[in-house]
């Protein structure tokens, strides 16, 4: 008997809803292609999960939003009534997503209208992840996970006030996509919210935020920015076009911009005084976080903006010691926030999967991210990559 992985269509990251709404309003006719990739070597071939993944996708495509879930989305002031009405009649279409076995590789592709396929990403990732970890020793992993969670909570309680730092330490759960299991995710967030509320500020998981009465966290991801590479604007101007559409959609809400689609230097070239004043802060997701943060601070200083009114959000493979170190380095000069993912929800003594599902084509043309970290670029079109690097003076 199949045990469903997906409990609710609300159980996805908040930024999926925010990007979904923005693209529905600005580019409702866009066509997109997303591909799944595992970047590390699993203990057993993920191809063995193909039949189970197919069954879970059948279940996902039979689901719809419940009335109380739609009411919750309406309660978020940045969610527009027409978007929630769209979700009321929305269902994932099974014909838009295919699962294949290629040797020992699990190949998953979602192809179709962007507003119908972009939502698959997070569900696919935690479906694959949970099916994979169901094959391991569950009691043993959970016992180890609880010991490690106790250590994390103890380290947070011991952290205390840091002398000379102007801004408080705050972190959130970003661990939905690569969690060990739904039950473990629930336990982690419940414990953190109950035991260290002075530091724990919310979760990207909208379903859990609703259940626990905590704050849903998130703004935009790479796919939103990348899509504008194919929306008919001059390629050099795609970041400005994406940021401008975001400003017009949210008008002051959800004001943290992602910086690493074509590298921090190219982002800052486009992030002029207009955008720097309109956005509340920036999110780091690749490259050296210290170098990135110093560049951000120098940019605000050059624009004569008081950095203490802005926020740097770090979200690249964090654990608490790294977050503490970054906080000590920056919090005397600018507000900080930390989105911690796998190290919260899948730190159970087993090697996590490094899985992603990325936008690779939009409106029939390749799109790409030129990451500040080697190995994160996911595009097979070498001609487009070379052109993108040339336009933004990005090193190969």
Automatic annotation (TrEMBL):
Belongs to the NAPRTase family. Transiently phosphorylated on a His residue during the reaction cycle. Phosphorylation strongly increases the affinity for substrates and increases the rate of nicotinate D-ribonucleotide production. Dephosphorylation regenerates the low-affinity form of the enzyme, leading to product release. Keywords: Glycosyltransferase, Ligase, Phosphoprotein, Pyridine nucleotide biosynthesis, Transferase. One of its GO terms (biological process) is NAD+ biosynthetic process via the salvage pathway. One of its GO terms (cellular component) is cytosol. Residues 169-395 form the Nicotinate/nicotinamide phosphoribosyltransferase domain. InterPro entries: N/Namide_PRibTrfase, NAPRTase_N, Nic_PRibTrfase, Nic_PRibTrfase-Fam, Nicotinate_pribotase-like_C. Pathway: Cofactor biosynthesis; NAD(+) biosynthesis; nicotinate D-ribonucleotide from nicotinate: step 1/1. This is Nicotinate phosphoribosyltransferase. It catalyses: 5-phospho-alpha-D-ribose 1-diphosphate + nicotinate + ATP + H2O = nicotinate beta-D-ribonucleotide + ADP + phosphate + diphosphate. It is an enzyme of class 6 (ligase). The modification Phosphohistidine is found at residue 222. Its EC number is 6.3.4.21. PANTHER family: NICOTINATE PHOSPHORIBOSYLTRANSFERASE. Catalyzes the synthesis of beta-nicotinate D-ribonucleotide from nicotinate and 5-phospho-D-ribose 1-phosphate at the expense of ATP. One of its GO terms (molecular function) is glycosyltransferase activity. Residues 10-129 form the Nicotinate phosphoribosyltransferase N-terminal domain. It comes from the Bacteria.
């Amino acid at each position: 008997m199949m045990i469903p992985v997906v409990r609710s269509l609300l159980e996805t990251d908040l930024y999926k809803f925010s990007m979904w709404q923005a693209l529905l309003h600005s580019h409702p006719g866009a066509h997109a292609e997303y591909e799944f990739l595992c970047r590390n070597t699993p203990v057993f071939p993920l191809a063995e999960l193909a039949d189970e993944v197919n069954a879970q996708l059948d279940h996902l495509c039979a689901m719809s939003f419940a009335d109380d879930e739609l009411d919750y989305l309406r309660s978020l002031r940045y969610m527009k009534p027409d978007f929630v009405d769209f979700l009321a009649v929305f269902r994932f279409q099974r014909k838009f997503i295919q699962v294949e076995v290629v040797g020992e590789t699990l190949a998953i592709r979602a192809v179709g209208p962007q507003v119908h396929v972009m939502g698959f990403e997070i569900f696919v990732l935690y479906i694959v992840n949970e099916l994979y970890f169901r094959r391991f020793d569950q009691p043993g992993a959970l016992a180890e996970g609880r010991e490690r969670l106790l250590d994390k909570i103890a380290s947070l309680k011991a952290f205390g006030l840091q002398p000379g730092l102007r801004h408080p330490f705050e972190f959130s759960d970003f661990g939905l996509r690569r969690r060990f299991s739904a039950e473990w995710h629930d336990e982690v967030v419940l414990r953190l919210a109950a035991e260290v509320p002075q530091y724990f500020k919310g979760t990207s998981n909208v379903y859990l935020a609703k259940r626990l009465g905590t704050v849903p966290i998130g703004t935009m991801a790479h796919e939103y920015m990348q899509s504008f590479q194919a929306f008919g604007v001059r390629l050099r101007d795609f970041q400005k076009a994406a940021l401008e559409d975001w400003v017009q959609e949210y008008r002051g809400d959800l004001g943290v911009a992602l910086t690493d689609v074509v590298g921090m230097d190219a982002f800052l070239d486009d992030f002029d005084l207009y955008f720097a004043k309109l956005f509340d802060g920036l999110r780091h997701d690749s490259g050296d976080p210290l170098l990135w943060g110093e560049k951000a601070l120098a940019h605000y200083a050059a624009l004569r903006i008081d950095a203490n009114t802005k926020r740097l959000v770090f979200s690249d493979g964090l654990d608490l010691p790294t977050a503490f170190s970054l906080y000590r380095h920056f919090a005397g000069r600018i507000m900080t926030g930390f989105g911690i993912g796998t190290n919260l929800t899948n730190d159970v003594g087993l090697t996590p999967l490094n899985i992603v599902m990325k936008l690779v084509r939009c409106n029939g043309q390749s799109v790409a991210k030129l990451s500040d970290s080697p190995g994160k670029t996911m595009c097979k079109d070498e001609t487009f990559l070379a052109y993108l690097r040339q336009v933004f003076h990005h090193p190969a």
